[in-house]
Amino acid sequence: MNSRNRFVMLLCLNVFFLIMFFSLSMILENNTPPLSVISDMINGSAPAYRYEVIQDLKIPRGLTAILAGGMLGLAGAMIQSLSRNPLAEPGLIGVTAGGVCAAVLWITFGPAHLQLSFFLPFFACFGGILAAFFVYVLSSYTKKMSSVFLLNGILISAVLQAVTSFILLRHQEALGSILLWTIGSLNGRVWTHLNLLWPIAVPALIAGLLTAGIANAWRLGTESAVLLGLSLKKTNALLFFISALLTAGAVSIVGAIGFIGLIGPHIAKRIVGEDARKSFPISMLLSSLLLLTADLIAQYIFSFLPFSFISQNIQLPAGAVTVIMGVPFFLYLLRKQT
Fold this sequence. Notes:
338 residues, globular, ABC transporter involved in vitamin B12 uptake, BtuC, 77% helix, 14 helices
């Protein structure tokens, strides 16, 4: 099988598993076997609330997971290409910390009559992009921007996380509504959130995929990229701000979900190689699948654990599951690099 046919097969396989897990998320329920749910729906004997839950809660939640996961995965692949650092991920460029800090500021100090689902994601997205802008400005004063912007991103993230912690200490009454933002969660994501996400996700994902050729040239090294006609400043800005927009858009809806943008791109490169024309779309699809799977685990893990002292109706935030998945993977990559 040649590489093109293998790539097409992998794309189809990823789409198949996405459809399968999305369908599984529609029929999983606590205390009810999936086959029983399917049988009731086929026979028309399912209670009316089940259709309402699927339509109003499960479908938008699943689609949000797919879009947000794809955005984080593609952003991670682009940042790794730009920095030429296999351990880079979207949270290192300051966008995640900026989005969370902006969300915390809005929840704590925003006008009470504007505490609506539209304004909070908008403000969080603006905060993430603003943080990325500061990182870019700080990094643009050096000729080695591609290797410095991660350090500046870590610096800006540390400052913003300190601000977030200070606000939480001074306003502990807001801790409950803020906690899920700092961890990352898909709980309560409905059509309103999806309708805010997809107008950012679709053009940003398309733009990110179209930069694959530039990323390939950049991967060859700075001198080779210049010989191929690339402008260093424009290339840095293009890859950086598209990845920042992808990250900010995802964080503004699902919060600070970590490691998705690290795991997906690495698995993709192991499967299809370093060619960004192949690794970018596979990274996007794999990361969508990872976040969708993590959210399913977060929702139903306690239904399958034999612990009577834990309620089966408790749902973990998806960000907690991705951390459990990501930490061992990061340690494995770190050991492999050293």
